[in-house]
Amino acid sequence: METLAFLGPASLFMISMTITPGPNNVMLTASGANYGFRRTLPHLLGIMGGCFVLFGAIALGLGIVFERFPIVQTLLRIIGSLYLLYLAWGIATAPPPEFGNAEGRPLSFWQAAAFQFANPKAWVMGLTLMASFLPEEGNTFVNALVLAGFAELVALPCISLWAGFGMAIGRWLKGPRSWRVFNGTMGALTAACVIFILG
């Protein structure tokens, strides 16, 4: 049990990081409103899958790339910012749902998973999580898998709240005008995350 003592503080860290606003949660809210919770599940699970792989890779040495080659971090910020602006435009211009189904599609599992590698908040989470809570004793690979897996289990209900919140908003919105305002606002909030990325 002592070897798993790091999971308690790690869970508190993950709750604080995943329940607060960020690119993933803003997009999950928009997706939940426009497509419903069930159709947003691949997006939600893609976030978890992408973060799991990213966190594990960081623990096994990927984070060192940032230290040795700062240009990689700069390129990642630029790519992440451009992709986020593209997603923001898609959210802002999404047509209102009709009869419970929206034209267009929510992010797929693979799109959401790939985005985590260009998402600075995910990198900050992964780097801090592994630097602060990865045990020095025992097998590094096993510890990294346990910590990354546990982190995503903690994150699941936190990010699900945002998709559920979006679904609740979607039921409240009536008429094309209110949908245009909502989607425009969510698109603007998504684009505003670029300030966090480049700041």
Outline the structure in words:
The chain has 199 residues and is an all-alpha fold. The protein has one domain. It is built from seven helices and no strands. Helix 1 packs parallel to helix 6 and helix 2 packs antiparallel against helix 6. It is globular and about 60 Å long.
Task: State the main characteristics.
mainly alpha; 7 helices; 199 residues; 0% strand; 80% helix
Topology:
Blueprint: H1 7-18, H2 23-68, H3 70-92, H4 109-115, H5 120-133, H6 140-172, H7 175-198
Helix pairs in contact: 1-5, 1-6, 2-3, 2-4, 2-5, 2-6, 2-7, 3-7
Concise synopsis of the structure shown:
80% of the residues lie in helices and 0% in strands.
The total domain count is: 1
- Mean pLDDT figure: 87
Low-confidence stretches: none
Structural class of the helix and strand makeup? mainly alpha
Oligomerization = single chain
User: Count the strands?
Assistant: 0
Determine the N-to-C terminus distance: 41 Å
Biggest β-sheet strands, sense, barrel? none
